[in-house]
Amino acid sequence: MGFSHDGKTERTKVSIPAMNRKDMDIAPFSSDLIVEATLVCDQSCIGCYAPNWVSKEIPADSFKSKPHLFLSPDALTSALRSIRPHGGKPFAVSIRGGEPSRHPALSSLIEILHPYASTIFLETHGRWIGRNLIMLNACRMFKIIVAIAFDAMHELPAGAVRDFCRYLDRESVAWRVVITEESQKAFAATRALCDWCSDEQVVYQQKVARSIQLVRPKLGVVRVDGTIANTLSSNLG
Ligand code: SF4
User: Fold this and answer.
1) Tens-place pLDDT, residues 81-134
2) How confident is the model over 125-180, as pLDDT tens digits?
3) How close is the Cα of 13 to the center of ligand 1, in Å?
4) Distance 139 CA to ligand 1 centre (A)
């Protein structure tokens, strides 16, 4: 289940007893290919599975001192050619990290992915929204869907997420709110805080505690060194 190739969401019934509803039409979040743009993040959320280097310095400085933590445009091009020659059936891609906005050449990665992709999701904590016009323009130009993380782990106030969504609406950039929680009850509690979202604008991810439970996308995961693995980089046991 997940996002279909035309960018619409396939739906599944998820029982949400805490909301006193029998069933709620919620889409779990998935894609055919995940691209790990960087293993740098400026947050250190408790429970994050990613083996990140945490840095709040400007992205260009991180790139200069630790280039091995960033996927290069050439490595991405090679990986995509080995997955599927250009001209094949387009597929749904998620760009993840770390935090993708910490990659100083993220726009170049998006441009390379675009001919291969039916849909591109940018999974992000969202704190760049309203402050990074280059990324905003890339999202608009390549019809990216900005997938903003909102859950207990990310500790972002609901009002901030609502402001990000409204900003993206004004700028004609599509978005989803991605809620990653351990249980349906926790999901329902977080979902109840997003009263500005329709059900179509909310997606659910199961929070996992072990690496074996991590998502395994159909076409794999492009790691920051350009290799293709069957699941995400992880520091979980
Ligand atoms: S923002 Fe995302 S990648 Fe960064 S530490 Fe938090 S969960 Fe991990």
Assistant:
1) 999 876 788 999 999 999 999 999 999 999 999 999 999 999 999 999 999 999
2) 999 999 999 999 999 999 999 999 999 899 999 999 999 999 999 999 999 999 99
3) 28
4) 20
Query: Into how many domains does the chain fold?
Result: 1
CA nearest to 222, candidates 66, 101, 116: 116
What is the whole-number distance in angstroms between the Cα of residue 85 and the centre of ligand 1?
A: 32
Q: How far apart are CA 161 and CA 218, in angstroms?
A: 30
> Closest ligand 1 atom to the C-alpha of 47?
7
Cα-flanking dihedrals φ and ψ of residue 190, to 5°?
-70, -40
The H or E element spanning position 144 is none
Q: Is residue 161 part of a domain?
A: yes
CATH code assigned at 32? 3.20.20.70
Classify residue 7: in a domain, yes or no: no
pLDDT tens string 2-47: 333 333 333 444 443 333 333 444 455 679 999 999 999 999 999 8
Would you give the distance in Å from CA 35 to the centre of its chain?
Answer: 9
Classify residue 6: in a domain, yes or no.
no
Cis check for the bond before 98: say yes or no (omega within 30 of 0). yes
20: Cβ below 6 Å to ligand 1?
Answer: no
Contact 223, 233 (CB under 8 A): yes
For residue 156, how far is its CA from the centre of ligand 1 (angstroms)? Answer: 11
Task: Determine which residue's CA is closest to atom 6 belonging to ligand 1.
Answer: 45
55 ligand 1 Cβ < 6 A: no
- In a domain? residue 4: no
Return the residue whose CA atom lies nearest to atom 3 of ligand 1: 98
> By residue range, what is the domain housing residue 182?
12-229
CA of 144 to the centre of ligand 1 (A): 20
